[in-house]
Each structure stands twice: as structure tokens, then as C-alpha cells.
Specification:
The chain has 205 residues and is α+β, with helices and mostly antiparallel strands. The protein has one domain. It has three helices and five strands; from the N terminus they run H-H-H-E-E-E-E-E. The protein has a five-stranded antiparallel beta sheet, with helices on one face. The longest helix is centred in the first third of the chain and has 45 residues. It is rod-shaped and about 115 Å long. The N and C termini lie far apart (116 Å).
Length: 205
């Protein structure tokens, strides 16, 4: 007759072996860590793309003001070309072609400012783009640029960055924007629309 303690001994041995078994430990740990690793991986990718696009938005704003400031006067056709050329800076990131100016995911505006010599307030002379500023309205500019009687080409650019993996960052997207200031290079001001006079005075309204 078998002793009653034999089944208990075998059960105890099986329990000890089970507790000492480590064959599935790595798989269990991997199952716990995998979601965190994926979130960190895609988050790093999306964050890096966001930084790259933000840099391109800065270059976009600088390109708009720089191209405009190199002219004595600009026409609608020239401004269209400036916007089209500047938007190409965003490659390889998606950006719809402007029609005639950037809209939707990417936008841009070019404005000429006149710094009033008495108040040092920067007033809008003309503005063209996605969201043009009202003529004669004032714009806050850095104190270093508040030189009375001078003109500035002021450009604004923005890009709605929508992450591929929305739940990692902002599902609705992140609006990246920047501005740039450039002084006219060929004359005291840049005329828009082009003046028909040979040496016209720059507007000071």
C-alpha cells in the first residue's frame, strides 16, 4: 500500500520545479516592455520629424523676405513665384502647392513695414499672402529694428505638422511657425504694385 505522503511529495517537487522554471521569463518581460518600446520609438521618430520641419519653416520665412527684399518693386506674378519657390523648401515633407498663395497645411504672408520716425511704430504699407495684414495697421517688431524712417520686409510662415502616429503626439497636429525681417537691398523700399514713375518717393503713410 502506497504511502499518502508520496502524492504530496510529488506535488511539492512539481511546485518547486515550476517556481524554479525560468524558460518563459524573457517572453513575459518582452510582452510588458514592447508597448513602451514602440511608443518611445515612434515618439522619437515623430519628434525628430517635427524638429526638421520646424527648421524648414524658419528657412521658408527667411526665403520669402530675402527674395522680396532683392527687388525695387514686385508684381503679383513675382510674388507667386516667390511663394512657389519657398514652398519647395519643405520637400520631402508634404505641402500643397500654393494657389496662388500657400493655404491649408502650409501658409505664408509677405508684408512691407515702415518704421515711423516719431513713434517708432511699424506700420503696414502693403501685405500679400494667406492672411494679409491690414494696411496702416501696426506690427510689433524687435527693438533692434526700430530705426525711424526705414522699411522692413516682414514675412510669416507656418506649417501644420500632423504626426503619422497621432496618439504619440498631438492627433490634431502641431502648428509650427516663424517670422523673418529683411531690409530692402536695392532701394529704400519695395514697391507693390510696381510704380510707373522713374524715381518715386517711398510711401510713408
Amino acid at each position: 500500500m502506497k504511502s499518502i505522503s508520496d502524492p504530496l511529495s510529488r506535488a511539492r517537487c512539481h511546485a518547486i520545479h515550476l517556481l524554479r522554471d525560468r524558460s518563459g521569463l524573457a517572453a513575459v518581460e518582452f510582452a510588458f516592455i514592447l508597448p513602451l518600446m514602440l511608443v518611445m520609438f515612434f515618439g522619437t521618430v515623430e519628434f525628430s520629424s517635427g524638429i526638421a520641419i520646424d527648421r524648414k519653416v524658419t528657412l521658408l520665412a527667411r526665403a520669402l523676405s530675402d527674395m522680396t527684399s532683392q527687388n525695387v518693386s514686385v508684381s503679383d506674378l513675382q510674388l507667386d513665384s516667390f511663394f512657389n519657390a519657398a514652398v519647395d523648401i519643405l520637400e520631402p515633407y508634404p505641402a500643397p502647392l500654393p494657389n496662388p498663395y500657400p493655404s491649408g497645411q502650409v501658409s505664408g504672408t509677405i508684408t512691407e513695414l515702415y518704421v515711423d520716425p516719431s513713434t517708432l511704430a511699424a506700420r503696414v504699407q502693403w501685405s500679400v499672402g494667406t492672411a494679409p495684414l491690414a494696411v496702416h495697421s501696426t506690427v510689433t517688431i524687435p527693438s533692434a529694428l526700430q530705426v525711424g524712417g526705414t522699411y522692413l520686409i516682414f514675412s510669416q510662415a507656418s506649417y501644420l505638422y500632423v504626426p503619422t502616429i497621432g496618439y504619440v503626439m498631438a492627433p490634431a497636429g502641431v502648428n509650427l511657425s516663424d517670422v523673418a525681417y529683411t531690409r530692402p537691398r536695392q532701394s529704400l523700399c519695395v514697391f507693390y504694385p510696381p510704380s510707373t514713375q522713374t524715381n518715386p518717393p517711398c510711401p510713408t503713410l
